Amino acid sequence: MRRDVFQAIADPVRRDIIELLSKQVMTVNAIADKFEISRPAVSKHLRILNECGIVHFNQRGRERFCEIQPSNLLPAFLWIEQYKQLWEDRLDSFENYLAELKNQQNIKKDE
Question: pTM of the prediction?
Fold first, then answer.
């Protein structure tokens, strides 16, 4: 079964793994050491990330190194980006509304 990038980022552990690998290439064991879940559970998350094309494994001797494939995160980024302006506009509108309420309260206090 081919998974997609949205399945990869849906789980907080996988998002944490992506964040770790965005900083450096790591072995499976080094990644597992960063979590309080079992190594098989971390391996399962890594397998899903690999199936989504976000993580690539490189075998070097007895170690398996995990390397992020950031370009494969692009579909999720583009999908989220389309809503950025919408949310910024809504937050600005809410901020303006709160400022107006505060201003009205200040006017009432001064009366």
Answer: 0.72
Q: Do 12 and 47 share a domain, yes or no?
A: yes
Quick check: 31 and 66 in contact, CB under 8 A?
Answer: yes
The number of beta carbons lying within 10 Å of the beta carbon of residue 102 is: 10
Tokens linked to 106: 């200040």
Q: What is the pLDDT of residues 28-83, one digit of tens each?
A: 999 999 999 999 999 999 999 999 899 999 999 999 999 999 888 888 888 888 88
Give me Rg for the CA atoms of the chain.
22
Write out the residue range of the structural domain in which residue 30 sits.
Answer: 5-72
Which is nearest to 56 in space by CA: 18, 89, 29? 18
Which uninterrupted H or E stretch holds 26? strand 26-27
Q: How far apart are CA 44 and CA 84, in angstroms?
A: 32
Looking at the structure, tell me whether residues 35 and 60 fall in a common domain.
Answer: yes
